[in-house]
Amino acid sequence: MTLAGLLMLSSIAVPAAGALGVRLVSTDGDGDGDEFDRYWLLSAILISITGALTTALAVLLILEGASTYRLGFDGGFGFSVRSDALSATVGLLDVVLTLGILGYTRTAGPHGRRFHASYLLFTAAVFGVVFSDDLLGTAGFLLVLIVATGRLVECGDKDGTRDAATGYRRTTVFGTAVYLLGVLVAAQMAGSSDAQQLAGTFQTIGYTEPVVIASFVCMTVGLAMLVALVPLHGWLVETHARSPDPVSALISGVLPAAAVYALLRVLFDVFTVDFLAANPLVTNGIIYGAIVSLLVGNVLAYGQRNIKGMLAYSTVSQFGLVVAGLLVATETAVFGSVIQLFGHGLVKGAFCLIAGIIAIRFDARTIDEFDGIADRAPVVAAAFAGLGIAMIGLPPTVGFVGKWYIAVGALEEGLWIVATFVVISTILTLGYVIPFVDHIYFGEFDGTDNGRETITSAMVVVTVGAVVLALAIGLASVGFESLLSEAISDLVDSPA
Prior knowledge:
By secondary structure, the protein is mostly helical. It has helices spanning 3-24, 33-64, 85-108, 113-131, 135-153, 161-190, 195-205, 210-227, 234-242, 245-253, 255-278, 280-302, 307-328, 331-362, 373-376, 378-392, 398-412, 416-442, 457-475, 477-492; strands at residues 67-72, 78-83. It is built from 20 helices and two strands. The two termini are 31 Å apart.
C-alpha cells in the first residue's frame, strides 16, 4: 500500500471507527454532563487526527504529486481512492468546518452519545465522498452520509423534527438510487465502476450513444436531488428549519457541497468535457436549470423574515450558481465554482452558527426580533455583518472572487446569460441580507436578553474566525488559483 493510499483510507477509517466505538459504549441513555465532555473530547481528538492525516496528505501531494490507490481486482470491480490538489483542499476545508462546528456544540449542543456517533460517521462519509475514485464507492458513502445526517437532525428538540428527518431520508435516498442506477448502467458497459476506466469506455463507445446519455442523466438528476436544485429543493428547506443550528450548518455548508463535489467528478473525470460538447442540449438544459435554481432560491430568500428560512433558500441559490459555473466548463469558471463552493461552506456554516448564538441570547429568529442587537452584542453584530458582506459577494471576500471568476469564464464562452444572472444574484442577495443588518444596527431593542453568560467566547470566536477566513481566502485567491490550476486544468482538458 502506498503512503498516500494509507493516509486517504485512514482519513475515512479514523472517524468511522470512532463512530462505531462511541455507539457501542455501554451506558444508560446518553450520559450525564461528564460523559458529554468525554464524547465531545473524543470527537475533537479523532477529527483532529483526521485533520493531521489530511495535512500530511497535502504535504505528500506537494512532494510527489497526485496519486491513486486501488483495492480489488485489476480491470474489475474494487474500490479506489484518489488524491490531487482539489481533493486535498476540499478535505482540509471539511476538517476546518467539522472542527469549528464541533467547537460550537461544546456549549450549545446537541450533546450525547447518539449525536457524537452520528457526527463522526458524517465526517467519515464526507471524506469517503471526497477521496473516492469509484462511483459505486461514492454511492455507498452518500448513503452513509444520508443516514448520519438523518440521525443528526433527530437530535433536535423542535416540533416536527422526526418528520423532517423522515422526509429528508426519503428524498435523498431516492436521489441516490437514481444516481446508482446511472452508475450500474455505466458499470455494465465498462465492467467496472472505476472513474478512469469508465471515462475510457465512454470515449470508445461514443458520447452520443443513447445508453451513455441515459447513464449521465440518471447520475446528474440523482445528484441534483442531493444538491437541492429547484424543483428538488424542498427537503433542504424543511430539514434546515427543523434542525439544531449546528446541524443546519452541516446541511447548508457541507452536505450539498459533498454532492456537488461528486457531480464535479462525474462531469469531468467520467464523462469529460467532450461529452458536454457532444451533447449541447443536455449541457444547456443543466445550465438553464441551474440558473432557475439560482433565481428561484434568491427570490424565495428575498421574501423570508425568518433567518433560517432565508439561509436555506440562499443555499438553494448558491448551489445553482456553483453548478452553472461547472457547466460552463472552462478553467476560469470551474475555478470560480470551486472557490464559491469553499466560500459557501465556510460562510453559510458560520451564518447558521451565529443565528444560533442570537437565538440563544436574544430568543430572536425573525428580522423584527433582530432590532438593536448591535448595542448589546457588538462583536456578534460585526461578525453577522462581515458574513453578510461575504455572502453578498462584495470585494475582497471569497464570495466576490467566486462570482467574478464564474462571470468571467461565462463571458469567455459567450454565455452572457450566466454572467448576467451572477450580477442579478448579487443584487438580490444584497436585498435580503441588508435588511437584517439594518435591523441589527439601527433598530431599537425591545426584546429579550438572556445575558452574556448564555454564550461562550469559543462560540463567538468560531464565527469571527470564519469572517477572517472569508476575507483571507478572497485576498489569497491568486495563490489558490496557482495551487489548483493543474488539477482544474486536468479536469477540463479533453482526454482526446
